[in-house]
Each structure stands twice: as structure tokens, then as C-alpha cells.
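Q: Predict the assembly, please.
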Amino acid sequence: DAGVIQSPRHEVTEMGQEVTLRCKPISGHDYLFWYRQTMMRGLELLIYFNNNVPIDDSGMPEDRFSAKMPNASFSTLKIQPSEPRDSAVYFCASSLGVGYTFGSGTRLTVV
Amino acid sequence: GNSVTQMEGPVTLSEEAFLTINCTYTATGYPSLFWYVQYPGEGLQLLLKATKADDKGSNKGFEATYRKETTSFHLEKGSVQVSDSAVYFCALSTHSGGGADGLTFGKGTHLIIQP
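A: Predicted assembly structure:
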């Protein structure tokens, strides 16, 4: 199994631009999570899905953030418009209920 | 709400030293407890877990015991190696499977092992 696959690995964008982060979970996993990691705030849960349905999005910081899971093998996290304070590493993780498998993350830099 | 507190780093040790990284938690119900490790530039990897009181999780020489009476899950290793240098995260989930409601993480402890 290739594990959880995230793309891109690195993204540099200008303030105000739209950014889309992508995640392919492990086949058969029915939970998908999006986390953000910063030095100041550590790891924060943004949103998670169960069977493609958003269950809890209370961690999404603002309306500029949105996430979708159109099918069991793909999810996106979109930021529009992006701001410098969104700079962070964004992790996707999937689970079958007995633990999490994390992707390698997307390092986002907004200048 | 749920929270995890772990010792601040960085923690610097010499090779073959004994390691303890403290972790305490606050949770509603009966949480499952986890230690994750993050190597530079990589995602988080599950190191070990325990799902009920007095369980001991172990992996790669690391151990942690779920202590309900002290709400703790301290990570230990008897003899560390340079390759153990990484950031270690204590985490909890309030569903026994660990995958149902998202993990609450501690801030992480940066461990540096010197040869």
C-alpha cells in the first residue's frame, strides 16, 4: 500500500490567491482527517470525514477554508483567499478506526 | 474538553542514556492514548498505543503505561540511539478505536541524541 498521499509537497503562493491541497487516503479507510501544524499552535484538527461525509468542521479557522470529499479516494482542502498566517504544514490522515496513518504533509508558504 | 500536556523540549541526551518524556492528559470518558513520532520532513508515525488503564504499549524499545490514577502516559526507553532523534507527540482519542473523533495532540517534545 502506498500510504496516504498528499500533493503538492510544497506550495508557495501569493497572498490573496486560491490554494488547493489534495489527499488520497488509504484504500478502505473510512475516516479522513485534515490537520494543520504550526510552531505556535502545534497540531490542530481542522475537519474530519466519515464515509465521505463531514462530521466535525469546528476546527476550520475561517470561512476562507473549505474541505470536500467527493469520493472515498480523494479529498481537498481549499483556502480562498490565502493569507500569510495560513503558512503551515497541512497533514491528511486516514483511519479504519484503530489508529491513524498520516501523509507526508504539504508545506504551504503564503507570501 | 480534552487536552494533553507534555514536557517542553528540546531534550538533549547522550547515546545509551535512559529516556523519559512525561505526558499527562485531561479527557472526558475513557480515552485511548498514543505516542507518535515525527522525523524531519515527514508525517507522523504511530509509535505505540494503549486503550485501557494499566495497558502497556511498546515498540522499538519504547514503552508507555496507561496510568488512570495519575492521568499519565509517560514514554520511556532504556538506551537511546542517535536515530531516535525526532519530535515525539503524546495524543489521545476518546473513542477506543482511535479513529472516530480525531486525535488531541500535545505540543510535541523535540529529542536530540548526541553520539
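The mean pLDDT of chain A is 94. Chain A touches chain B through 22 residues (CB under 8 Å).
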